[in-house]
């Protein structure tokens, strides 16, 4: 994790913008989960919202099913959303309607927004009463995000960071050695060699960054940029370091046409369209999530960490957590049920299983010691990149 930064400094900025979408007043009197549907066959029902699709969604449903079979007190009912943003938007509507799920999977900035409005339950009551709980088993960088004074406003589910995925044969055919790519400038030169054109028409792109700000933020931080000044009073995204990065990507995409992005669409449509271009021989590589690994064939593809932007700079790709949170007002039985699922999902074996299947970072330090994880890493070295 020494090469990965937490996106702590963005939370305050995003919170200022995002909090405007939730009512100005504080509300701790939410009636979550319809009491008439709180039990089924004598078991306590925990409705759980998550914004995962494809194999990730299938893997989540598999773990939910395993949990339900592992005990006879709770039933977790997974409700898939289009993506993380949709989960949050739907949760806002549920909060306004006083009928929320018992458990949600959120990005860290959304957890902060809800916490500042006192709209999340405190899970420290559950951990305090759990004799098996050991705070030291979990990665501090993710746990610190959800510790607020003496409260625990959520719990890390897994971590994610952006990686570079490339088609081995395309690189070999173009004479590009991935081990020689030490900077984004190196990758840009490689993309020029990899791109195939017929006149002005591009037949094959050298690289496809992922749509959205994350790639650009990572590259800017890896060029020595920062989001805020050291005293936290000045936004610094108009500095030379940022301008150089964003202008470079603009040039590569729009002028040189050696790179391309897929944008818009429903849910994760743009994401899978980007992956498909590489898989179907339309591009040499792309920038994607560590969580893509479950969908990729590494007999054909390779993976690299994001590099520094240029020579003399340090690579600083961001690692972010995805968090389990329980809305305020959920009854105590459902809070405990939600916690039991969280505990199950983040235990060493299940967290390792999730990491192996998805490529996401396990939040439980002990997962790395499980036989399943050690065996997987020995056979799939690219899976070690997010935690190196």
From TrEMBL:
<protein>
    <submittedName>
        <fullName>ABC transporter, substrate binding protein</fullName>
    </submittedName>
</protein>
<keyword id="KW-0732">Signal</keyword>
<dbReference type="InterPro" id="IPR050490">
    <property type="entry name" value="Bact_solute-bd_prot1"/>
</dbReference>
<dbReference type="Pfam" id="PF13416">
    <property type="entry name" value="SBP_bac_8"/>
</dbReference>
<keyword id="KW-0813">Transport</keyword>
<comment type="similarity">
    <text>Belongs to the bacterial solute-binding protein 1 family.</text>
</comment>
<dbReference type="InterPro" id="IPR006059">
    <property type="entry name" value="SBP"/>
</dbReference>
<dbReference type="GO" id="GO:0030313">
    <property type="term" value="C:cell envelope"/>
</dbReference>
């Amino acid at each position: 994790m020494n090469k990965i930064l937490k996106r702590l400094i963005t939370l305050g900025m995003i919170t200022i913008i995002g909090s405007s979408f939730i009512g100005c007043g504080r509300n701790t009197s939410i009636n979550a989960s319809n009491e008439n549907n709180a039990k089924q066959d004598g078991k306590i029902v925990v409705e759980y919202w998550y914004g995962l699709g494809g194999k990730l969604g299938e893997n989540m449903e598999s773990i939910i099913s395993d949990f339900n079979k592992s005990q006879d007190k709770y039933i977790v009912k997974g409700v898939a959303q289009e993506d993380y943003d949709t989960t949050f938007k739907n949760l806002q509507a549920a909060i306004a309607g006083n009928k929320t799920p018992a458990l949600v999977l959120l990005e860290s900035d959304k957890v902060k927004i809800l916490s500042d409005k006192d709209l999340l339950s405190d899970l420290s009551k559950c951990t305090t009463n759990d004799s098996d709980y050991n705070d030291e088993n979990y990665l501090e960088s993710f746990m610190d995000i959800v510790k607020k004074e003496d409260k625990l406003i959520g719990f890390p589910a897994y971590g994610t960071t952006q990686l570079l995925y490339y088609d081995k044969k395309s690189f070999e055919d173009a004479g590009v050695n991935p081990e020689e790519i030490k900077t984004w400038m190196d990758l840009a030169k490689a993309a020029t060699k990899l791109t195939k054109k017929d006149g002005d028409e591009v037949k094959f792109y050298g690289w496809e960054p992922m749509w959205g700000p994350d790639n650009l933020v990572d590259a800017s931080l890896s060029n020595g940029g920062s989001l805020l000044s050291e005293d936290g009073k000045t936004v610094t995204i108009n500095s030379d370091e940022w301008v150089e990065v964003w202008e470079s990507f603009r040039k590569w995409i729009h002028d040189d046409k050696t790179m391309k992005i897929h944008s818009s669409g429903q849910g994760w449509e743009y994401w899978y369209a980007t992956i498909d271009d590489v898989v179907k021989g339309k591009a040499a590589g792309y920038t994607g999530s560590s969580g893509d690994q479950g969908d990729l064939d590494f007999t054909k593809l390779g993976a690299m960490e994001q590099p520094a932007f240029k020579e003399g700079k340090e690579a600083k790709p961001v690692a972010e957590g995805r968090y389990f949170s329980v809305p305020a007002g959920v009854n105590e039985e459902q809070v405990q049920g939600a916690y039991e699922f969280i505990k199950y999902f983040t235990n060493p074996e299940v967290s390792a299983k999730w990491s192996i299947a998805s490529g996401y970072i396990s939040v439980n330090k002990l997962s790395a010691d499980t036989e399943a994880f050690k065996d997987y890493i020995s056979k799939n070295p690219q899976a070690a990149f997010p935690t190196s």
